[in-house]
Design brief:
The termini are far apart. The chain has a two-stranded antiparallel sheet. It contains three helices and two strands, in the order H-E-E-H-H. It has a domain of about 45 residues. Helix 1 runs antiparallel to helix 2. A hairpin with a 5-residue loop joins strand 1 and strand 2.
Length: about 150
């Protein structure tokens, strides 16, 4: 018998059973068991294959879930590494900016010091030259009366 015939036979046994109040039915347990045993023995290969497919599907789903979780963990680790790398880059850029600012400040200070030094040298030279020029004029003025003048013609 095929599955449909066996199911029909099981339904027939239920229909022929003695009905009790409340919807219960008394059936011949031995005959019902025999039909169920026949159902088990005559189960089509497709049903057995379907059970295998369902088991494979569960296994595949579990493997896919595991793979997805591993991929997610890997992506999170890479994201953290990228964030850390970006933070390192920001810190390096900040440090570079600080170094440049310090170098520019030192350069300004050195230029100012050099200008002040040159200005001081020039002021001293001016004072010394002015003093020398004043001495030269004084000496010249002192020598002028001592030089005889040529007779006027």
């Amino acid at each position: 018998m095929n599955m449909e015939e066996l199911i029909d036979k099981l339904a027939e046994l239920l229909d022929k059973g003695m009905r009790l109040p409340g919807g219960r039915v008394i059936v011949d347990v031995e005959r019902v068991r025999a039909v169920i045993d026949d159902l088990s023995l005559n189960m089509p290969q497709e049903v057995k294959q379907a059970r295998g497919i369902v088991a494979d599907c569960v296994s595949i789903r579990e493997q896919a879930k595991s793979d997805a979780e591993a991929t997610l963990r890997d992506a999170e680790e890479r994201a953290k590494a990228m964030v850390a790398q970006e933070e390192i880059t920001k810190l390096a850029q900040q440090r570079a900016n600080e170094i440049i600012a310090n170098a520019q400040a030192k350069s300004r200070d050195m230029r100012k010091a050099a200008q002040d030094f040159v200005e001081e040298l020039m002021r001293r030279a001016d004072e010394e030259l002015s003093a020398d020029l004043a001495e030269l004029r004084k000496t010249r003025a002192a020598l002028k009366p001592q030089i005889p003048q040529a007779p006027a013609e």
